[in-house]
Design goal:
binds adenosine-5'-diphosphate; Rossmann fold; OB fold (Dihydrolipoamide Acetyltransferase, E2P); binds magnesium ion; 2 domains; alpha+beta; six-stranded mixed beta sheet
């Protein structure tokens, strides 16, 4: 059982605390994605789990063992980095074998594991090549192969796909998911890309300035973001946030009440609709002056602004005849609205 448990893990560089007390319980076989903007502490947290950074306070447990004082090599984890970190003078086969030889793994066992990984990753034709003779995508596969042959208790990924072009990134993302499922190896995956995070994760951890902002399944975070930070970070284009004044108490679902005062209303671009013939347009509606229409294939995003110049984005299916400077009334179902208090915390 290779679960990973963090209890109030902290990291200070000098007097600056960059990881401010993270507690997290990752189940055996689970793929947890750490996502957040650049500089929020994702790599630091991953490196603390790996043992590449000491921890200032708290505990880290891997497979039931507190590893705070263990060297990376003693933690039974394998890391995959963005820059591949392959040995340039070695062939792919030698790169894959290297870590196993160092652990005195018998030769036939090494051969068996390399054959298995090479097959799973479809890198068999490149085993005798040097890394420089491979494309970026092939190198990344080798880097993953090197992690797989170790048969570790856990995989730790730090933005492994960031150097690849967009198409290859999507392809590799699907493959990583498939492999991780097949191997059922506990994994922690770091990315700043919310789309990658949403599609890969069993559970997502949104980090903001060294703290967990929210933890949950991708759909939970999408449907019920706990803060305006998560609301705008998860989903693309971002959720619209509109400042509102609540003038009398309003009841929300699940017995929540909107207090009187300043608040923020959130509505996703995909939840705003043009009025359909025969509907009353009940719920929430706003008038948007169109500034730009972006066709992105199967749908278009209309960017515009309200009378007070507040920007708004909404989605329409396919091509649209909407033109710049059109004044459009768009609706949202009351159920699809999100409300946040002045501090940006979800209400209801
Ligand atoms: P991310 O991976 O989310 O982009 P990092 O974990 O690399 O963020 O960095 C988190 C914060 O810690 C940043 O503010 C960064 O400047 C700081 N930091 C990272 N490494 C060091 C270091 N070795 N010394 C001092 N500060 C560091
Ligand atoms: Mg990083």
């Amino acid at each position: 059982m290779a679960n990973i448990v963090l209890k109030d893990a902290r990291k200070k560089y000098g007097s600056v605390e960059v990881i401010k007390g993270v507690s997290l319980d990752i189940s055996d076989g689970e793929l947890v994605v750490l996502v957040g903007p650049s500089g929020c502490g994702k790599s630091t947290l991953l490196r603390m789990i790996a043992g590449l950074e000491s921890i200032t306070a708290g505990t880290i447990e891997i497979a039931g063992r507190i590893v705070n004082d263990l060297e990376p090599s003693e933690r039974d984890i394998a890391m995959v980095f963005q820059n591949y970190a392959l040995y340039p003078h070695m062939t792919v086969r030698q790169n894959l074998a290297y870590g196993l030889k160092n652990r005195n793994t018998p030769k036939d066992e090494i051969d068996r594991r390399i054959a298995g990984a090479a097959k799973a990753l479809e890198i068999e034709p490149f085993l005798e090549r040097k890394p420089r003779q491979l494309s970026g995508g092939q190198r990344q596969r080798v880097a993953m192969g090197r992690a797989i042959v170790r048969e570790p208790a856990a995989f730790l990924f730090d933005e492994p796909l960031s150097n690849l072009d967009a198409k290859l990134r999507v392809q590799m993302r699907v493959e990583i998911k498939r492999l991780q499922r097949a191997l059922a190896t506990t994994s922690v995956y770091v990315t700043h890309d919310q789309m990658e995070a949403m599609t890969l994760a069993d559970r997502l951890v949104v980090l903001n300035a060294g703290r967990i902002e929210q933890l949950g399944t991708p759909i939970e975070l999408y449907e019920k973001p706990a803060t305006t930070f998560v609301a705008t970070f998860i989903g693309s284009p971002s959720m619209n946030l509109l400042p509102i004044e609540i003038t009398r108490h309003q009841s929300l679902a699940e017995n929540a009440v909107l207090p009187v005062g300043t608040a923020t209303l959130g509505v996703r671009p995909e939840d705003l609709h043009l009025p359909e013939p025969g509907t009353s347009g009940n719920g929430f509606s706003i008038d948007v002056t169109v500034a730009a229409v972006e066709l992105v294939g199967a749908e278009s995003y209309v960017h515009g602004f309200l009378a007070d110049r507040h920007p708004v984005v909404f989605r329409v299916a396919g091509r649209s005849r909407i033109a710049i400077d059109d004044l459009m009334r768009v609706h949202a179902d009351f159920k699809s609205l999100h409300f946040f208090d002045e501090a940006g915390r979800r209400l209801g």
